[in-house]
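In the laboratory, one determines a bound structure by crystallizing the protein with its ligand and collecting diffraction data. In a computational setting the workflow is compressed into a single prediction: the sequence and the ligand go in, and a structural description comes out. We illustrate the idea with guanine.
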Amino acid sequence: MSAEIISGTEMRAAILEELASEVEAMKAKYGKVPGLVTILVGENPASVSYVTLKVKTALKLGFHEIQDNQPESITEEALLDLIEQYNQDPNIHGILVQLPLPKHISEEKIIYAIDPDKDVDGFHPVNLGRMVIGGEDGGFLPCTPAGIQEMIVRSGTETSGAEVVVVGRSNIVGKPIAIMMGQKGRGANSTVTMVHTRTRDLAEHCRRADILIVAAGVPGLVKPDWIKPGATVIDVGVNRVGTSSTGKAILSGDVDFAEACKVAGKITPVPGGVGPMTIALLMKNTVRSAWMALENKSSAAYVCR
Ligand code: GUN
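The predicted complex, in structure-token form:
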């Protein structure tokens, strides 16, 4: 048996096409386009490459895009002032501060400073709280978990009543996706187990999963005999395991992909799986934020399109 590959690259293309039509509709109705600012502090190579891709995608969609690069030495106060400036800017609908930040800046303070109605990353506690409460009045969903859920839906995997096992408990992926999959609604209604480094017999839990979501940051952690035959496997790991002769990073997931393909029913590759979906969902959040602003609605009162 060889698993069906769930291509994040192809799904991203479909989502971006849908969003491009929305941008056209927005221009026609309001004469405005979504505005996104991406703030990058310092020159962390991984962050530079993520931000470059985000900027490129925003520009391709016709967004008003500001790439605001700041030196590693910027003070926390100056960064807070900058965020406040974008909070007040009516042409900016989404503010993204690329993480991680230098050690002298509190990520918590920076995230808290972003207007929740412009928090297209979905990291602000107000949006995380709305996500936990669920329902139609939800705020912005964090992009990677939202991308994972979208991939599961678009791959035709049944989630209702399914056993979902999430490996990892980070604030950005593990915790939110575990909550989202257990909610009522589309692509959810699952029975969720969240496992982590202190879990006894990790493999045994994974073997029960109809949908296995792995966000541990450990290359090749999940072995083929951890996978239930026919399961859908979502590999969120992006581990730099080497450098090619041309100087490009060689990436590997948290799942032993070649062997897992022989057992799983559907599986995401690395690269080309979850990564492209994160960017697509960031763009989707930004378009939604722009509609909210143009229609004078707070995210709490806005029904998702
Ligand atoms: N660093 C790694 N992933 C992300 C992300 O999704 N958003 C931001 N802002 N920083 C990140």
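Residues 87 and 239 are 34 Å apart (CA to CA). Keep in mind that any predicted model is a hypothesis to be tested, not a measurement.
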